[in-house]
Amino acid sequence: MSTKVYSFSSTNEVAQGLDKLLAHLSSEAIARSGRFTVAFSGGSLPATVAKYVKHNSTIDFSKWFVFWADERCVDHSDSESNYRLVKEELLDHVPIPAKQVFAIDPTLLSNSAAAAAEYQSQMVAVFDSVPVFDCILLGIGPDGHTCSLFPGHPQIEENDKWVVHIDDSPKPPPSRITLTLPVLNHARTVAFVATGAGKRGILREIIDDRNLALPASHVAPTNGSALWFVDHAAAQDLKINKPAEFKL
Asked: How far apart are the C-alpha atoms of 198 and 141, rounded to whole Å?
């Protein structure tokens, strides 16, 4: 596993870097397998990722297969829905076939365990064995969580299931489903996105100190790369893994 940190002067430049990364990874994956499999988390990430990507005419969106790294058990129209965020920022603007967009089943929102099992069944239909995503896009919380894998919660220990549920999330809404570490660590590329001075301390703990009490510290693709797209404000405390210039 290789870890690389790329720092940019602004969130806008982070978005430009992600545009170049996704265009490259998409082209590479489509040449290799005829498709590009990608998973999104929520928060501010979809807007940052999609800002330039949705206008990139070099990307063959018809070959994209879109999943969610985690999702809240809320209606697709709810403001808390990660599906809604990605739909509004990206899916409404690019020609990804509906059959290649894999969202949480809205009929199972009151039963997070069933929703997680059903989401795994959607993944089984696309991946023959443990999923090897071409790219998983992740954020981090101030507590070091990523996806809906939170410090001190048992979901971080799951080794068999691809998708698990949580009903006591310390961050509302409480019920969610999330990909597990085995899936994250089978990815070809995991791209973390973190911006703002508020992330500087937690970035140091994850990237430099590798504090294993923090779920994000466990994301280490076995045969892939962990890339960090951060701004200068978030990266200013890094001493060991100093940011490099972004080059493909």
From this structure: 10
Buried b (16+ CB within 10 A) or exposed e, 40-75: bbbeebbebbbbbbbeeeebebebbbbbbbbbbbbe
Positive or negative, the Cα torsion across 185, 10, 87, 199?
positive
pLDDT digits (tens, 9 = 90+) for 38-84: 999 999 999 999 999 999 999 999 999 999 999 999 999 999 999 99
Both tokens assigned to 6:
């790329």
CA angle 245, 247, 248 (to 5 degrees): 160
CATH topology of domain 8-218: Rossmann fold (3.40.50)
What residue ranges do the domains of the chain occupy? Answer: 8-218
| Low-confidence spans in the chain with pLDDT less than 70 | 1, 248
pLDDT tens track for 15-25: 999 999 999 99
Burial bucket for residue 193 (CB in 10 Å: 0-12, 13-18, 19+): buried
Q: Supply the angle between the helices 11-33 and 45-53 in degrees, to the nearest 10.
A: 70
Q: What is the pTM of this model?
A: 0.96
Tell me the pLDDT of the chain averaged across its residues.
Answer: 96
Secondary structure (DSSP) of 185-239: TT-SEEEEEE-SGGGHHHHIIIIIS--TTSGGGG---TTSEEEEEEEHHHHTT-S
